[in-house]
């Protein structure tokens, strides 16, 4: 009986270590990031598994609390956080919606990276394994009021590669990053926004 005890303990330790490693990789990446810049491709997949939307653009981040999603194709749209508010600007519709930063749940991937969210307080964090230098981490919100049910992060050699957001309506959003730069020097003006003249501004919560 005692001889089988040690393999069991080893297997339990190995499983715990394998789970912790991807989480540590995500924590390590976030701890060393002050700024980020990357190109991105985004797909939205409906509840039937069909791709309903494809877009691409440029992403910028400056911690804490500032980010900019700049959608360029197929339509222009900007999502800009200045540290306290998030501005959703549609140049073609000439409309802006502004929300408090901590209530902008639609920007959950950027909020995760922004340093405004403490992972262990907001999410249940679990490693999903690693293979060939890649690691996956799943985050599930503790609050039932969040509009998404899980967020999956992929890293390669401890560097962010992709994020996948599943909402409560069966929709899946996948974002893959390219040419990612860690800690580049960024112009502070990227994270400031003033509505252009004649644009309709809507306050949202």
From TrEMBL:
<dbReference type="InterPro" id="IPR018323">
    <property type="entry name" value="OM_lipoprot_carrier_LolA_Pbac"/>
</dbReference>
<dbReference type="GO" id="GO:0042953">
    <property type="term" value="P:lipoprotein transport"/>
</dbReference>
<comment type="subunit">
    <text>Monomer.</text>
</comment>
<comment type="function">
    <text>Participates in the translocation of lipoproteins from the inner membrane to the outer membrane. Only forms a complex with a lipoprotein if the residue after the N-terminal Cys is not an aspartate (The Asp acts as a targeting signal to indicate that the lipoprotein should stay in the inner membrane).</text>
</comment>
<keyword id="KW-0813">Transport</keyword>
<dbReference type="InterPro" id="IPR004564">
    <property type="entry name" value="OM_lipoprot_carrier_LolA-like"/>
</dbReference>
<keyword id="KW-0449">Lipoprotein</keyword>
<dbReference type="GO" id="GO:0044874">
    <property type="term" value="P:lipoprotein localization to outer membrane"/>
</dbReference>
<keyword id="KW-0574">Periplasm</keyword>
<protein>
    <recommendedName>
        <fullName>Outer-membrane lipoprotein carrier protein</fullName>
    </recommendedName>
</protein>
<comment type="similarity">
    <text>Belongs to the LolA family.</text>
</comment>
<feature type="signal peptide">
    <location>
        <begin position="1"/>
        <end position="20"/>
    </location>
</feature>
<keyword id="KW-0732">Signal</keyword>
<dbReference type="Pfam" id="PF03548">
    <property type="entry name" value="LolA"/>
</dbReference>
<dbReference type="GO" id="GO:0030288">
    <property type="term" value="C:outer membrane-bounded periplasmic space"/>
</dbReference>
<dbReference type="InterPro" id="IPR029046">
    <property type="entry name" value="LolA/LolB/LppX"/>
</dbReference>
<keyword id="KW-0143">Chaperone</keyword>
<keyword id="KW-0653">Protein transport</keyword>
